[in-house]
Every structure is written in C-alpha cells, then in structure tokens.
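Researcher: We plan to redesign the surface later, but first we want a full-length starting point. Tokens attached.
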C-alpha cells in the first residue's frame, strides 16, 4: 500500500464528500488495502464513504482497523 496517514485520509474525505456543492465525487472503486489507515483515519473518511452514491467497491483490508473496524 501507499501508507496513507491521517492527513491523507482528510484529503480523501474531501474527494469522497458528495455534500459539497462545487464537487460531486464519481469514485466507483477505492482500493485502500495495506495503507496503515488506522482507526483515526478510518473514522475521518467513514461518513463520506457511507454517504457516497457512486462507490461500488471498497477494499480496506490490512489497515490496522481492529476487530470492529473502528
């Protein structure tokens, strides 16, 4: 993976945010496997992932999320 950090997760959150009037995300596939995203990073992007209307495939395996992912 590319080693996403908390700051990267914040930028990804902006890219996925479908509520922004000036930007509509059309991301369909998001491959974040093995990126050290961690619980804090996942917490930052999870609202936008949940609200995404275009996202079809999401791989978050091997991201040190813990059993509950959160």
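Model: Full-length starting sequence:
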């Amino acid at each position: 993976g590319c080693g996403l950090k908390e700051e990267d997760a914040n930028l990804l959150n902006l890219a996925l945010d479908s509520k922004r009037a000036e930007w509509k995300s059309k991301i369909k596939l998001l491959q974040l496997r093995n990126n050290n995203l961690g619980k804090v990073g996942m917490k930052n992007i999870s609202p936008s992932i949940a609200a995404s209307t275009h996202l079809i495939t999401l791989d978050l395996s091997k991201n040190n999320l813990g059993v509950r992912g959160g």
